[in-house]
User: Fold this.
Amino acid sequence: MRTGDAAIPRSKAPNGFAYLLLLVLIAVLGVASSAAVSLGASIARRDAEQHLLTIGAAFQQALASHGGRPRELDELLKDHRVPGIRRHLRRIPIDPLTGRDSWGVVRDAQGGIVGVHSLAPGKPLKRTGFYSRWKAFEEAGSYRDWVFGARPPVTATPPSPRALR
Assistant:
């Protein structure tokens, strides 16, 4: 035995213990990172859904303001039925879920647009807490079921004028 060896105390832990701890730490950090990314994506999607509701309200107002049934969404940008310039929308908004300015349209029997919806795939995260005019959205299976501007179905007894406000 060499004289220098006796002065160095040996660790009582097995040789691979520090390596195992490092692997466990990396696994825990990976799980935490994955949860944070998932939470961030969920928050971003909820924000996009809220933005979609705001845009949908603008579409609904523009279709009501137009009064008729436009054949194309561009007719909401400049209404040629009246003299001068009348705009119901300043521009066709970007769908916050798809990032495009293309929208699905719902047409009446004559081909006029009565509603718009997002073309985004997937099921909405928001399931409750809608304004009364969008209560049907609580049962939506996809974003295509969030139709903005469509009039309610015709019933045998017409609703009172107060109910339409």
Notes: The longest helix spans residues 17-66.
